[in-house]
Amino acid sequence: MLTVKELTTTPSLELFSELVELLQDAVTDGASIGWVAVPGTKDARDYWTRTLEAVGRGERRLFVATDEHVCAGAIQLHLPVKANASHRGEVEKLMVHTQYRRRGIGTALMQSLEKVGRDAGLKLLVLDTISDSAAARLYARLGWQRAGEIPDYARSTAGVLEPTTVFYHRIAH
After folding, report:
1. DSSP letters for 27-61
2. Residue 6's CB: how many other CB atoms inside 10 A?
3. Strand ranges (DSSP E) for the chain?
4. Total domains in the fold of the chain
């Protein structure tokens, strides 16, 4: 059974290890989430440690999807600290483990994030993703608006400069 929960405290060692595996799986599959090569275990652990520290400081919110208590996906909401940006959030690092794809997990993560954003008083969410990717198609299906495309924005794991599409979504109150 699929559940999505927000992590507000340090997860169990088992879940932390599954987050490390999720990150490595996503990058292995070519996800454009800031890495150009699959991170080793130490680098992936350091990444999640920094992310959880940002959660603790209130700069970021982290949502994890589990299927039968196994980590199937994750997504983050970055909360800007600028006074003129307090009404918006940036969606980052949507990851769904390759073994769990095509089961509605990405949609469930996005819907959970949007609900929390709405409840927190946010009015606008933004994100960017590699153009013409499965993620871009997901966001469009979920009603996100395409703002435009930036060429040569991110280097892929294959070493190619890829365009990114910027999306936004107004959250209804």
Report:
1. HHTT--SS-SSPPPHHHHHHHHHHHHHHHHTTSEE
2. 13
3. 2-7, 60-67, 70-78, 88-96, 124-130, 145-155, 161-170
4. 1
Cα 6 from Cα 4, distance rounded (Å)? 7
Residues whose CB is less than 8 angstroms from the CB of residue 35 and which lie 6 or more positions away in sequence, other chains included: 27, 157
For residue 17, the domain's CATH number is 3.40.630.30
Residue that the structure tokens 């994750």 belong to: 74
Instruction: Give strand pairing partners of 157.
Output: none
Is residue 107 domain-resident?
A: yes
Instruction: Please state the pTM of the whole predicted model.
Output: 0.94
Each residue's pLDDT tens digit, 104-147: 999 999 999 999 999 999 999 999 999 999 999 999 999 999 99
How many whole angstroms separate alpha carbon 100 and alpha carbon 2? 10
